[in-house]
Write a structure and sequence with these properties.
The protein has 357 residues and is mainly alpha-helical. It has a domain of 214 residues. The protein is 66% helix and 3% strand. The strands form two sheets. It has a two-stranded parallel sheet. Strands 3-4 form a two-stranded antiparallel ribbon. It is globular, with a radius of gyration of 20 Å.
């Protein structure tokens, strides 16, 4: 398990800067290839979506209220040290993910001339900047704000081809929606469990995430070669990578999930189900998360990740050998999950979906 402690702003920024298998990454891409994208086949839906962005229905949402500040002032004395650390990790990880989108979208809009892509990326960078700033405000309540300018300059970047950006970011935005709406619905049913006011913002917030995913769905459906042939294998890979990362990371936050009233495995599979159902709008194959071997495989990945952390803590030659052994277990398990049967479905004629969950 990740035993990193976050006690200062420098440590929060360092935590955001870390590049691990589980941490959110910063990306760059081929801007010339982005410029060549054709949105023509989905023009009517695209123009309607861009009009929604232009309307900016969340322009007034990410503002702290007096009630929010009053709740924050009464919070921390009631928390355990473990819950505090896991919540801080949740905030830093979420902020890093949101800011990663802001940086990527802003760099694309600065480096392309395609008017459709340029306009879309400007709107999405705007949204993600608000999200990251709102999260950073909550970190500052703990005296820990992340230096976003420094993070942008110093965090390592991963180059992804545009199609990989589309698969990964579509899934990231949609699973972000599924996570936030599941948490929000939980607190609707059990308001007594809502231990931080930021969760009140999640419903309208996650509709931004949903709309971002719709943007990538339209790009993919406008370019059908990205959804056929060998690209099906990449789509399968990214679905599994996103689900596996979430499963392992969430199980490293037991106190946070308990505070929200969740069984973490049940919560994750509810999020997987929502994400799978949404992604039928664009992916001709989705993972069979009900397959008996799927949950067992994720549990093996979790044990492998825990074994790697124990080996790191042990150190020395024995620790290095143990780490290599657990890494092999993890790799073999991922391959076994990858070759499980998938669910196939025809793509709907209408691409757009409503955030109805």
């Amino acid at each position: 398990m990740d035993n990193t402690r976050i006690r200062t702003s420098d440590e929060a920024t360092e935590h955001a800067r870390a590049s691990t298998l589980l941490s959110p990454r910063f990306y760059t891409t081929d801007f010339a290839a982005m410029d060549r994208l054709d949105i023509g086949p989905v023009r009517a839906e695209w123009d309607a979506l861009l009009a929604e962005y232009e309307g900016d229905n969340n322009h007034d949402h990410f503002q702290r209220t007096a009630e929010f500040n009053d709740e924050v002032a009464r919070l921390e004395p009631t928390w355990s040290a473990e819950l505090r650390q896991e919540f801080l990790d949740f905030l830093v990880s979420s902020l890093t993910s949101e800011f990663s989108g802001c940086v990527l979208y802003n760099e694309i809009q600065k480096n392309v001339t395609n008017p459709d892509i340029k306009q879309l990326m400007r709107f999405m960078a705007r949204d993600e900047s608000r999200h990251a700033g709102f999260l950073n405000q909550s970190l500052k309540d703990f005296g820990l704000g992340v230096d976003l300018g420094g993070l942008k300059r110093t965090k390592s970047y991963t180059f992804f081809k545009p199609k990989f950006i589309f698969y990964a970011t579509y899934l990231s935005e949609k699973i972000g929606y599924a996570r936030y709406i599941t948490i929000f619905r939980q607190f609707e049913k059990h308001p007594e469990l809502r231990f931080h006011p930021i969760f009140r913002w999640f419903e309208r917030w996650c509709n931004d995430e949903f709309r971002h995913g719709e943007s990538f769905a339209l790009i993919l459906r406008a370019n059908p070669a990205l959804l056929a042939g060998a690209n099906i294998l990449w789509i399968r890979f990214f679905q599994l990578a996103v689900y596996a990362t979430m499963y392992v990371r969430d199980h490293q936050r037991p106190q946070l999930n308990a505070a929200m009233g969740f069984d973490v495995t049940d919560y994750d599979f509810e999020v997987f189900r929502i994400t799978r159902d949404i992604s039928t709008q664009v992916f001709p194959q989705t993972l069979d998360i009900e397959h008996p071997a799927f949950r067992a495989g994720l549990d093996r990945l979790l044990r492998a990740a825990e074994g790697i952390e124990r080996a790191k803590a042990r150190g020395g030659v024995a620790g290095a050998l143990s780490k290599a052994g657990w890494a092999l277990v993890g790799a073999c398990t991922f391959v076994r999950l990858y070759i499980l049967p998938t669910r196939r479905q025809p793509l709907p004629a209408q691409v757009r979906m409503a955030p109805a969950w």
